[in-house]
């Protein structure tokens, strides 16, 4: 009897748990049995592997073959185990030395010709293989993605024959060298393109500096979408760990990591998006828009047009920074530390308060429109700003507006001060952090308490006012909060936000 073990990786959420493919050959009638909770696509690998081995010139053992994908209680799907299954059969039959597989992991789907096809979710597997101290064998099309895991030895192959020649020592492969495509950073839209709207730009600066959520309210054509698209360019660059998290999520979602790495994502789902489209889901849970916006910006335009039940699912991840999708057999956890920027009109027609008097909406229509947004959701948005219509000037010469680079430098200084002081952005301060880093003079505390009581603001809203005031002090380079910071922060909390 012969036994061989081959290391591979499954894909569960954004994690890549280890899977050991065990191949056992025994005497008896020729057969091939696959166990270990495989789904249909994995069961079909038996036929793909058989054809790939035969067309590549290898012997397919005419014996009783048992293949086990361990652990048995972990669901397996896709064609990512084809390569490991083929190597297990080759090693168990003596066509490949068993010891050559001890320090390697492999992923790849086999064509009937023996060619190796790419699979999704390679980056999480690469990070896990690096942590386990093994090298990784992947299809050539996945090699650039796997090379994001610095320090990992990656071998890229296009055909099964290449891999067997490498393992037998006949034609050793050189570790894959990254081509540097991942360092081509596209420029963000520049804040200098926005004419006027000084108050909205100030709110953007505050939101970027403290990672605060932001809501723009104003009539059509005032630049709400234009302003929101400038926020990613104000945020600090991703560090290596954050960039890998973003790339891993897009890898799992079958989006090219090269399209999002190493920049912060900006997701802009349509208001017709369903709950699963926003938070993720499916029989095989996949990340939704809030996870694809992890470490970046989630922009919801025409906020009241979203289904209210869809918006309510945002409340938990806005607080916890993650989303848990429960299924009967398991729970899948996706990261969702996003920054929400939303935009809405003041009324159904959009022209409430317009000097031209174009609004024809009745009070009941306006109230019904605003009631589409719940108090608890609005309470979790730190900055509320009304964007007024600017004077129409066509083909105006470029104004000396503040550029994204200048604003980003201010944000970087404020954010670094926060990290040095408390280890996180101000928006993520807990109660202990508020007590320690947002201390007030007695008279200022009483003033804020009276203001919140008068406006009917909740305790959560009061805490968020303190966080925004802390950000305003950081932008000014001050350690202590004063009445001026509290007053400006309170300006961004209208009384209607009572939760």
TrEMBL record:
InterPro entries: AAA+_ATPase, CHLI-like, MCM_dom, Mg_chelat-rel, Mg_chelat-rel_C, Mg_chelatse_chII-like_cat_dom, P-loop_NTPase, Ribosomal_Su5_D2-typ_SF. This is YifB family Mg chelatase-like AAA ATPase. It comes from the Bacteria. Belongs to the Mg-chelatase subunits D/I family. ComM subfamily. Residues 288-387 form the MCM C-terminal AAA(+) ATPase domain. Pfam families: ChlI, Mg_chelatase, Mg_chelatase_C. Keywords: ATP-binding, Nucleotide-binding. It comes from Serpens gallinarum.
């Amino acid at each position: 009897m012969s036994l061989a073990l081959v290391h591979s990786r499954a894909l569960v959420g954004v994690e890549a748990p280890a899977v050991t493919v065990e191949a056992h050959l025994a005497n008896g009638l020729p057969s091939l049995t696959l166990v270990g909770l495989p789904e249909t696509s994995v069961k079909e690998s038996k036929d793909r592997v058989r054809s790939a081995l035969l067309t590549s010139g290898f012997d397919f053992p005419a014996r009783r073959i048992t293949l086990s994908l361990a652990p048995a209680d972990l669901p397996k799907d896709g064609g990512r185990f084809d390569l490991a299954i083929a190597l297990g059969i080759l090693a168990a039959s003596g066509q490949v030395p068993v010891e050559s597989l001890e320090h390697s992991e492999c992923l790849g789907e086999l064509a009937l010709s023996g060619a190796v096809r790419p699979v999704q979710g390679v980056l999480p597997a690469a990070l896990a293989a690096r942590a386990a101290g093994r090298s990784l064998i992947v299809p050539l099309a996945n090699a650039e993605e796997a090379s994001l895991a610095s320090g990992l030895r990656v071998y890229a192959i296009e055909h099964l024959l290449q891999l067997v020649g490498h393992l037998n020592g006949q034609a050793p492969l050189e570790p894959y060298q990254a081509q540097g495509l991942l360092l081509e950073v596209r420029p963000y839209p520049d804040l200098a393109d926005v004419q006027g709207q000084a108050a909205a730009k100030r709110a953007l600066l505050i939101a970027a500096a403290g990672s605060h959520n932001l809501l723009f309210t104003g009539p059509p054509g005032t630049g709400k979408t234009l302003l929101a698209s400038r926020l990613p360019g104000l945020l600090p660059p991703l560090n290596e760990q954050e960039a890998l998290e973003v790339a891993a999520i897009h890898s799992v979602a079958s989006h090219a990591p090269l399209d999002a790495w190493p920049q912060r994502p900006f997701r802009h789902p349509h208001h017709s998006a369903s709950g699963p489209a926003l938070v993720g889901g499916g029989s095989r849970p996949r990340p939704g828009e809030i996870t694809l916006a992890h470490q970046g910006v989630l922009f919801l335009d025409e906020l009241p047009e979203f289904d209210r039940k869809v918006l309510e699912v945002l409340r938990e991840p806005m607080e916890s920074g993650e989303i848990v999708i429960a299924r009967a057999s398991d729970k899948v956890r996706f990261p969702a530390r996003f920054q929400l920027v939303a935009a809405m009109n003041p009324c159904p027609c959009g022209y409430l308060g317009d000097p031209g008097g174009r609004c024809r909406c009745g009070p009941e229509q306006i109230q019904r429109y605003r009631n589409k947004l719940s108090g608890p959701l609005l309470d979790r948005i730190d900055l509320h700003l009304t964007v007024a219509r600017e004077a129409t000037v066509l083909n105006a010469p470029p104004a000396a507006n503040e550029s994204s680079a200048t604003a980003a430098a201010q944000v970087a200084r404020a954010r670094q001060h926060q990290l040095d002081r408390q280890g996180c952005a101000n928006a993520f301060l807990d109660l202990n952090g508020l007590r320690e880093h947002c201390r007030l003079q007695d008279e200022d505390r009483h003033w804020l308490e009276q203001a919140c009581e008068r406006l009917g603001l909740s305790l959560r809203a009061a805490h968020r006012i303190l966080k925004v005031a802390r950000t305003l002090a950081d932008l000014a380079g001050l350690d202590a909060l004063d009445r001026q910071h509290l007053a400006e922060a309170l300006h961004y909390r209208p009384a209607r936000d009572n939760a």
